[in-house]
Specification:
12 helices, globular, 78% helix
């Protein structure tokens, strides 16, 4: 049986995996948007991710496991939450100044806490207040560094509510992906069902964008580099990272995940430096260190809580 300490370790490693590859997704997406429109790019990613996840489920557990163990309306809601996050986030980024968007994303722990409270009534995790303060302050330092010299500055442009709604939608998905399945249902299978259910919603969103003239004809013949970037983000940032995220939520809870979400820009900067030659500012490095300190602070509280019962039992 998995102990609380080992569960905390597995959850932390999974959150780390997801954060690193979500960070990788940022510079790769910036490159991909030179070739694809954002709505078609999102749909293409999920088509690849759903195919991969379905193949993994069928190979590991048999094709019969592709069927849903929960009612189909609930599967549709999971897909709606996933697609709602993607569509709202994409539209929000298009309509919001990047510095404002970064500031809003830094509030992830707060959105997670509010949504979790409303949906589950769960109390705040140990160390949440201190960790939230550290991650938001650290993100603010990094954002200030990124915004230095930006004549436009952070300002309201109409997409801010969509970004907040996107973060809340992802939190609802994360909660329901754990609550609606029996404990023995693997996280891979849960992730597959959410991904495949998101595809029809994403198709509808893309068709609506086409009808409104927001996007043109889809690029069906990308160059080799764009195709490689698309496959990398679909496999690692979309499919495998969502599985890792769900494992993290199952072990540590979605509140800890909200802290880890603030490390995504940190890893994006590091990956951009390593592979794209983009040099971070001193403020970005300092802010990233403060964000990581906030995550480690909450992890330390989680480990203390895990070791407490074990220490009592060993007396």
């Amino acid at each position: 049986m998995e102990t609380r300490a080992s569960a905390a370790l597995v959850g932390s490693l999974c959150y780390l995996f997801a954060s690193v590859f979500w960070g990788m997704n940022i510079p790769l997406t910036a490159a991909l948007l030179e070739t694809f429109d954002p709505f078609w790019l999102t749909l293409a990613r999920y088509l690849v991710a759903a195919a991969l996840l379905g193949a993994l489920v069928a190979f590991g557990s048999g094709a019969r496991r592709l069927a849903s163990p929960i009612p189909l309306p609930r599967v549709a809601v999971l897909g709606l939450c996933v697609s709602g996050f993607l569509v709202c986030f994409t539209a929000g980024l298009l309509l919001t100044h990047p510095i404002t968007a970064a500031a809003l994303i830094a509030g992830a722990p707060v959105y997670v806490a509010i949504v979790s409270r409303l949906v589950t009534g769960a109390p705040l995790a140990p160390g949440f207040v201190g960790a939230t303060a550290l991650t938001i302050v650290g993100a603010g330092i990094a954002i200030a560094g990124r915004g230095a010299g930006d004549a436009g500055g952070a300002r309201l442009q109409g997409g801010e509510a969509l970004i907040v709604l996107a973060m809340c939608s992802w939190t609802v998905y994360s909660i329901f992906a754990q609550r609606w399945f029996a404990p023995e249902v693997p996280q891979l299978r849960r992730t597959w069902l959410g991904a495949v259910a998101a595809v029809p919603w994403l198709v509808a969103a893309w068709l609506a964008a086409r009808a409104l003239g927001l996007v043109g004809e889809p690029n069906l013949r990308p160059d080799p580099r764009s195709l490689a970037y698309l496959l990398a983000t679909a496999v690692f940032s979309t499919a495998l990272s969502t599985v890792a995220w769900n494992i993290g939520v199952s072990r540590l809870g979605v509140a800890v995940g909200g802290m880890w979400q603030n490390t995504v820009p940190v890893f994006a900067v590091l990956i951009s430096l390593a592979f794209f030659g983009i040099v971070p500012t001193g403020q970005q490095v300092l802010g990233g260190a403060v964000v990581l300190a906030g995550v480690l602070y909450m992890q330390w509280h989680a480990l203390r809580a895990a070791r407490g019962p074990a220490a009592v039992a060993g007396r």
